[in-house]
Design brief:
618 residues, 7-stranded mixed beta sheet, 21 helices, alpha/beta, 6-stranded mixed beta sheet
């Protein structure tokens, strides 16, 4: 029996007195070794009158039967059978082939097909990219669902995926005034009229979401509680009825951290129209009553309901089930990175560099190391970061920690942070766009203006520029990259920035910073090439509790002659910042040596007064 189990052949049995005869079909490779087949005769008992002492087994049969009953064997002729799945070779049966070294390296055998298993079939169905996605939020009130929705919308839009949030609460408020539909009694399961109104709002939101996907949208985010199995099954059924090319992924927000819950509730009652006209104490009491009513009927998402991602306490823990494909590959790391902590993020264009005299090509400047002005910028940047980070850590009340610093691998970028930190992370993901043949193989080519480098192509290669202008986001430089290519390599850097709980400084180049600024400002990624990235300017973004960012620009006063003033950074027109005019800002002014200004100086002072007033108004 052990021989038969080892070779997996069919069994033929026949009783012959006190003996049991068995013939085994074996693969050709084993047939060659055992001369076709093995007839095994096993004695029933040593006490039997027909008992015969066993013959010493062959080495092969000894390896197979070690630890089994004693046997006698003789080889008989049999034609080799056809090959079948599961046939094993003599090499795989030989004891000499079973070594610890081979075992720990792993098997070199080709895996057997699993297409007939239920789990594999399920994975196979989920792996292909769907035509459209419905991301349905699940969770009790004040668990961060809207925060997650907004973060996902911004991230997916930045990736070039047409995405829209459908907030069921907004549909409810449009149908029933917030002073009625926003109170806790409206969410009582026993209130049949209110329950019908809430169901109608959810249905209307889903209808609009499916219409959005059917018209070419890629991702529809359903921002609602979706707290019961019945409601979630209804979503799945309606999506499948609309199109079998649409997929549903549930994102459940679970929160049991008291501090996070308090923060979420305060944010909700201060900003939601549902609590307008109520005092803070009344609003907090009302939302707690609403949560209690939802808790009575709440059912967590189960494996049987399909694909889901569960986020615990806003990403301190993430759980996923049946999530495959490119969409999930991007969403999962992002969901693990986002959090509600506030910290400054600074984006800076690398300092100006020295002209390489060996550079070829009229008008092109190959920048290898910082120029004198670039060195002054690096010192001003260090002073700015030191002041801002000190202010941040004083606000938090925590001990100061180092700033996370990321740069490209270009020398200018690395040298720009030499006075900020002794150690930082260099990554090629932050390198400027590869312009291929257009750049003549050069990577670190700076532009004279503050706009996109493609503008130079308008003069040098008008035919390429015309083609690029039709699709600036996807059009590649010959042999180089497109904006979309740069975005794909930036995704991991963006996840690192979102994940950080400390201040972050990124020093890079125009095209890279355009894409990052587009993410933080919510600018359509197809228009990122239009974003101006001024030199000697710090772009500061700060996350908000609602999931967006506050954006500011701070111009560092870097002068060619080496005079810098990083303590009072100047802010461009129309931007918020810490700029205030000083005498140095008006070099044409001829002030009197002492006392009252001279009559000749009064007109100049009057002009300055007008400029100062205008600046303060801005």
């Amino acid at each position: 029996q052990r021989v038969i189990q080892a070779v997996g052949g069919p069994l033929e049995c026949g009783a012959r007195g006190s003996r049991l005869a068995m013939a085994v079909e074996v693969p050709p490779t084993i047939s060659a070794a055992l001369a076709a087949a093995v007839e095994v005769t096993a004695s029933m008992s040593p006490a039997h009158p027909d008992f015969e002492p066993p013959v010493r087994p062959t080495p092969v049969s000894q390896g197979l039967l070690e630890g089994g009953p004693e046997v006698s064997a003789r080889v008989v002729s049999k034609s080799p059978p056809r090959k079948r799945l599961g046939d094993c070779t003599l090499d795989c049966l030989s004891p000499s082939k079973f070594s610890q070294k081979d075992y720990y390296k792993g098997s070199a055998e080709v895996g057997s097909p699993l297409s007939k298993t239920m789990l594999y079939n399920q994975r196979e169905r989920l792996t292909p990219d769907s035509q459209g996605f419905v991301l349905a939020l699940v969770g009790l009130p004040a668990r961060g669902k809207s925060f997650i929705s907004r973060k996902l919308e911004n991230f997916l839009e930045w990736q070039g995926l047409s995405t829209k949030v459908f907030n069921v609460g907004m549909y409810r408020r449009e149908a029933v005034e917030p002073d009625q539909s926003g109170r806790s009694d409206f969410f009582d399961a026993k209130n049949k009229v209110a329950a019908a109104a809430r169901e109608a709002a959810a249905t209307a939101a889903l209808d609009d979401a499916l219409a959005f996907l059917s018209s070419g949208g890629k991702v529809a985010i359903m921002d609602a509680t979706n707290s019961t199995k019945v409601r979630r099954k209804s979503i799945v059924d309606q999506v499948r009825a609309c199109s079998n090319r649409f997929a549903v992924l549930f994102v459940e927000a679970i929160c049991d951290d008291a501090e996070i819950l308090e923060t979420n509730m305060l944010s909700k009652v201060k900003n939601s129209p549902d609590f307008a006209g109520l005092s803070l104490e009344e609003a907090i009491a009302d939302i707690k009553a609403r949560v209690a009513k939802y808790e009575d009927v709440y059912e967590p998402v189960q494996d049987s309901e399909g694909s889901y991602i569960k986020v615990f306490n806003l990403s301190s823990k993430v759980m996923a089930s049946h999530c495959y494909g490119r969409m999930s590959k991007s969403i999962m790391p992002f969901m693990m990175a986002i959090h509600i902590g506030a910290r400054p993020i600074w984006l800076v264009r690398a300092g100006s560099g020295e002209i390489d005299s060996q550079s070829l090509g009229e008008g092109e400047r190959m920048l290898s190391h910082l120029s004198a002005a670039g060195e002054h910028f690096a010192r001003s940047l260090a002073a700015f970061i030191d002041e801002r980070s000190e202010r941040y850590w004083n606000t938090t009340g925590k001990e100061k920690e180092p700033t996370f610093v990321f740069t490209s691998t270009m020398p200018r970028s690395v040298e720009s942070v030499c006075h900020v930190t002794d150690s930082h992370e260099q990554t090629a993901a932050l390198n400027p766009i590869d312009k291929g043949a257009f750049a003549g193989g050069r990577l670190d080519v700076d532009c004279s203006g503050d706009g996109a480098p493609q503008r130079e192509a308008e003069e040098k290669q008008p035919e390429f520029y015309a083609a690029w202008k039709n699709d600036p986001f996807r059009k590649r430089f010959p042999g180089g990259e497109s904006y979309m290519d740069v975005l794909k390599r930036l995704e991991s850097v963006l996840v690192d920035v979102e994940m950080s709980t400390r201040p972050v400084l990124i020093v890079s180049h125009i095209t890279v910073l355009q894409l990052l600024v587009a993410y933080f400002r919510g600018t359509p990624v197809e228009e990122a090439w239009k974003v101006a990235i001024p030199q000697n300017t710090v772009l500061e973004v700060t996350p908000t509790s609602g999931g967006s960012f506050v954006y500011e620009e701070h111009a560092l006063n870097v002068r060619d002659e080496g005079k810098t003033d990083s303590k009072t950074p100047k802010t461009p027109k129309g931007k918020r910042g810490s700029w205030f005019p000083t005498v140095e800002d008006f070099p044409g002014l001829d002030m009197a040596a002492a006392g009252t200004p001279s009559a000749q100086a009064l007109p100049a002072l009057l002009g300055i007064g007008v400029q100062v007033a205008a600046a303060l108004d801005q």
